[in-house]
Amino acid sequence: MTKAVTLGTIATGAFIAAIAQPAYAQQPQSGAEGIQDIVVTARRTEESLQTTPIAVTALSPEALTTAKVENVVDLQRTAPGLVIGRGSAGGDGIVFVAIRGQGNLQPILANDPAVATYIDGIYIPRPSTGMTDLQDIQRLEVLRGPQGTLFGRNTTGGAINIITSDPDDQLSGTFKAEYGNYDNLGVSASVNVPLAQGLAIRVSGAINEREGYGTNPLNNRDFADNRSKFLRGKLKYDGEGWDFTLSGDWNRQSNHGQQTALWAFNPAIVPAPFQPGLTAGLLRKADWWDNTATGTSLAAGIGTLTPEAQALYGVQPFNTLEVYGFSGTLNVELGGLNLKSITGYRHSMNYGLSDTDGTAVPLLGTFAGSGSYYVSQELQLSGDITDSLSFITGAYAGKESGYEFSRSQIFGGLIRDSNADVTNKTFGLFAQAYYEITPTIRAVGGFRYTWDTRNSVLHNAQVLGRPYDVAVAGTPTGINCTVTPSEPVTPTTCNQVQNAKFNYPAWNLGIDWQAADNIFLYLATRGAAKAGGWNLRAGGLPAFSPEKVKDVEAGLKVDLFDRRVRFNTAIFHTWKDDNQAIVNSFVPGIGVTQYIQNNGKVRIWGIENEITVIPWEGMTFSANGSLQNGKYVKGSFSETQVVAGSGCTNPAGVVNGCVVDLSGLPLLQLPKRQLNISATQKLDVGGGTLAVTGAYAYVGSQHFDAVKAAEQASAATKAAYDVENALGKVPGYGIFNGRIAFKLDNPNVEVALYGRNITNKKYLLRRFPDLYRTLGIAVAYVGQPATYGVETTFKF
Q: Whole-model pTM?
């Protein structure tokens, strides 16, 4: 299908999907005549959603509650073009966020996400924070498209901008209790207390415990359970011409392992003695939410290891996530200018054991985790130069230091160790100006330049718990240290130092037109970059460079029929160069491995629509939809595969290395269709309001892995590639959610019944077939079953 035909199809189907946002945030207040406006900070300053020249979805506290959004993962049901993957061979603390096909399935410490997350102006570098609780939120914004000028690097897909509730001068509080199936018990509270003139404090917290969605029939141990604790405090002082906010938050979550199941195995690779156990452990509809994972097994020879290493054998699956941070924000009026300082500190730690095959067979168990702290400082200066010209400019600096490790047990043997220490530094300067050409036409121009330093030190060992310098057969070095050492190896040191520096620009040019009081149009082109980095688990490879993205976006925002219909649409085309692609290849001294390199040019295009309708009093209908497509530029994406006896030649000189053109492969995390619909009817009943909400969320099929065999490969090898490629595609699915709530006017109490995945749909969040050709397994991560419960909220 040609690009023109595809866009034509998109444009035709868009209006159908556009009966369609959840302009959840624009839900009218009770008794209001039309859809209420909402203020957003998508351009780092407050302005109306309907006059902001960016495709942005804004969610109010009421919208988050009604849609039962509890963490970032739930946002997939609220915004077009946004998909969020769950499930990882390294544990369930990481979420994989993609917008408009811009994502990253390996967001480790030396490889960043493509969608940035900000909380109260503080950049959150590690995507593990995406699993943390969303409590006491003033507003949540999903910005789509490159945001590199004002939000910086790692925003090639967009940004998630979370604004928590500030303290104010009113004594108020909210208390909520919840109970549901799987013994889901939760309590949360927030209290705002004025302390003195201009000084107030706000404290919020939550505790939740839930049994697992699945049970292991071998040991009657549940998994995919949850134990979570959250706390946030904010102190704010409003002075004469200045204000200062100090904030701190902490969140800890733990469980008995993620919902992993074996989908398929390769009998040509898995040893015959293991195969009966794998057959018994295959995922079936009858036991969709169960598995037989048992963790690591006891291995021969562990008596010679250190006590710390011995303690990792015979361990059952688990996950632990802890994040916390502090921030200080100062605003000072300087004549007609405003100076803002944002200082942040973030700590992130996730650690767990994943039984990757999901069965009782000791095929692959992986301890994986990371920890880091991030210190950042941003200065902004903004104001009006003339009545027609305004600006914002500033500087940003950040430093992240941390560690990452992956310790795997294969076929019940001794545990291997791959770990690294990482230091990332970034510095950027930016400026953006707005010019009012006429009272209804504005222009914007912005530019940012970023300098990055990426340093890592690898310490990989063939056997964890043995000295690095002892002889070990089968390693590239002949000793336990398996990296290319930068200094002499000792019993306790095995270091490979890797340093790199990058620099790159970002920009924004646009024009917008207030064609009428209720019609707003804009046209913009933007550029952004995802930072470069290192392959920590495949030492000796060169660093990969920043991934560069530019786009063109045109948008329309309309309010009609006395603000009873709101329709927002955006059409975009994205160009991506220096694509950070995951490839499988042969590396001299390492062998066949998977790593990231700059390879391929990508084109993505699509349309997004959001609509809100108030057809009669008390009814709010809202929906969003997206149609998108994309491809690699022909001939721009390739990898080298070693085929014995082929006689292939290649520029790198790898013997029998056949260059394979991969530009025909599908893009990852890019569903062609997505649709979210919700309807809420409110009725005055006695001394209160009854609200009934129904919602449907659909996401189309998407790829999480895509491979292709060399033409010179054997028939058996090609067949294995074909199976892996098919397993890499996850079918589309749709789920129904609902909520019935009754709210008293006095006292302010609400009692609500809710249901998620009401039809108990059995669907997949992700399949992980990357190990099918090497270890012989492909696993699946299943979605949540039907959950329901009751919640009571009291406010004063």
A: 0.91
